[in-house]
Each structure stands twice: as C-alpha cells, then as structure tokens.
Write a structure and sequence with these properties.
Layout lengths: L4 H20 L6 H12 L3 E2 H8 L3 H13 L3 E5 L7 E5 L1 H25 L1 H15 L3
Antiparallel strand pairs: 1-3, 2-3
Helix pairs in contact: 1-5, 2-5, 5-6
Length: 136
Amino acid sequence: MDACNGFATRRAARYITRLYERHLAAAHVTTTQFSILVLLSERPGMTMSELARAMVMDRTSLVRAIKPMQRDGWLKTEPALDEPRKLVLSLTEPGQSKVQEAKPLWQKAQQEFEAQVGSERAAQWRHDFFEMTRST
C-alpha cells in the first residue's frame, strides 16, 4: 500500500479531519459543517449545485450534510428567484453566530497542523490540492 496514492491521501485526510474535529467539537460542529457554513458566509445565496461543486460532494451527500444544520436553524433554503426549482442556501443569524464561535477553534486546528508540517509545506499542499480539484 506504500505506493497507493489513494490509500495515502485517504489516510492523511482521515488524520487531518480528526485533528480539526477534535478542535471544532467544542462548538458542536463537524469539519464538513464548518466548511459549508464558511462557504455560505463568504458567498451567500449559493445554489445547492454550486455548493456541491465547491465542496466536491454529490448532491445527495450534501443534502444529508445540511439537514442537521437546517434542523438546528443555522441555514435556510429557499427557491431561487429566477428558477423556483433551484434551491438557494443562506445562513441565518444562529448560523453566522456558529461560524464566529467555531473560527477561533478552527484557527487552533490550523496552528496545530502547521506546527506539525510547517507553514510553507501546508500552504504548498493547499495550493496543490485546490489546483487538483479546481476543475471538478
């Protein structure tokens, strides 16, 4: 398995996810939820399709991820004005508060990760991973 890129990246992803979730647990938010909340705070009014593309998730998985956030009142969906069949997502005030609560915890996770791998290496990895997934 040492030569398998898939195994190595999944193993690293699980390790990194555990690190971030350990920190974010104090805000009762998962890494996926945090990513969705931050994306919606940066780009309000994204459609389900746009968010799925940004997250590199299929729509079914995205729907499963956002249901608990809707239930908890962190985000809402409404029909797009130009096409009622499209759903537009936006943060509620509790959702914005959740982002503000979780950001310092996320920052601590960032610092811990960068202390392990180095800031320059982490920045290079982010660049490379975003480049790899930009066309998806």
